[in-house]
Please model this.
Amino acid sequence: MSRSPEPDLAALQADSRVLWNEDVLRFCDTDANGHVNNAAFAMFCESGRVNALTSVLGPTLGPDTFFAIARLVIEYRAELHYPGRVRCGTWISRVGSSSVSFSQVLLGPDGRLAATSDAVTVLMDGESRRPKPLPAATRTDVEALLRPE
Amino acid sequence: MSRSPEPDLAALQADSRVLWNEDVLRFCDTDANGHVNNAAFAMFCESGRVNALTSVLGPTLGPDTFFAIARLVIEYRAELHYPGRVRCGTWISRVGSSSVSFSQVLLGPDGRLAATSDAVTVLMDGESRRPKPLPAATRTDVEALLRPE
Amino acid sequence: MSRSPEPDLAALQADSRVLWNEDVLRFCDTDANGHVNNAAFAMFCESGRVNALTSVLGPTLGPDTFFAIARLVIEYRAELHYPGRVRCGTWISRVGSSSVSFSQVLLGPDGRLAATSDAVTVLMDGESRRPKPLPAATRTDVEALLRPE
Amino acid sequence: MSRSPEPDLAALQADSRVLWNEDVLRFCDTDANGHVNNAAFAMFCESGRVNALTSVLGPTLGPDTFFAIARLVIEYRAELHYPGRVRCGTWISRVGSSSVSFSQVLLGPDGRLAATSDAVTVLMDGESRRPKPLPAATRTDVEALLRPE
Model:
């Protein structure tokens, strides 16, 4: 199993291009194995992406568009246990013609790395449900936050 | 964005090493974008893995062990819309000393490919929460189902 | 704790006004108590209501309307354990000017009663987000299925 | 539809017997109706109950016990919209031989009342999965917080 190297959390915390948001663990996030279920990690990653998309990209996107996810990778680094909060650090790692790629870290209640994630999202037209190019103003805003791998 | 090639669904359906299970879409799987939320795909993949783990590996595993996921990759190929059923085809793509890797396809209510997925799971000791080697009998059962990439 | 009397399952199964649908338990429905989490029961009840609303009421409702839930009561009768299927029996117990009330039973994988539920739903205008009266044709269809308490 | 009267939020906020906790809305809590799905309300109520059970009752309960829910009532008062936080106020409304009843309010991101809830929970033996009497010390702690209806 090839794994990405452990990210430098101190560097991420010091980098203003990394956006941070927080989720609260719920009892129903746990499963019969006694820990937070793996699918909940996908929810936390989505919280970070939506937060980034809304704050950075939202203002310049036209109406009736949304971002759909094309590819999601999650590397699980440590179990999460209820209760507590999960912090998510999100940054933009790549910009394509109609796609925006994100990288993320999830930190557990103890501040330790629980997961890393990469996602490719694609701007979609709400009517046709087909990809559409990023508006120029959106691209400018996104590129200002780009933190290449 | 590099994407895996489209899997050969007919070959998968004809291959007895591929295990099939079914989930029912729920209204709460949808999100404000009007389609099934991406995190629900992670749940459907888990259904397939747990089904495979239980039916194939379960009988030979000792008590107080469980499989934890180390890495999950989902490639989203088409939107899923409520209502209907999702079929999941799951096969074992690799066996390590304490890990079992799965590949999966998710088929939507119309039978079309909605997603492909790869996951690495690791056998864990329930007490120590640390990886432990696959028992020999488990390894034999798993290797009989191996469908290498 | 005052509890409703146990419903007569045989009578429900024989009554054509009761609509049946099925959900599949997911591993992530379980929680750290080792059983299906109580909030998942709310999801199964919703599946039954949406199924009823879509099949019975849907055809005569105008566009841009939806049913919102005003009140939900669930009486938990037995634990549900993964894996397996949940059957939901749903009937209409009351019709108001803009509301439709449902009663439900949830049956576990063993066919035993897992929960009973009552819900009041209200027809909403999608634009104003305010209640609106049931169209006359909808009322006729609903009253044909009414199974008063 | 008979509805409970609107609770006095100022009185609840001033009452030290009411315990407050907070959840963060997730994008996947929304559904195709564009608002937070009704089942998510059940999750928020559970967060409040578990918080209360852990902080008040947890210290005196023996090992291998858990509280199961016997009855849940939710009255939906206003839609919740993503994003934002939900505050939950929880108090103990009744104590039985093996049961503890809770009442709750859910406040949306704007501080307005989104829902009220009542729940009956029962102390369960983890081994036998049967109700067991509240220990005397637990009863003392619970009764100190009792806020009868």
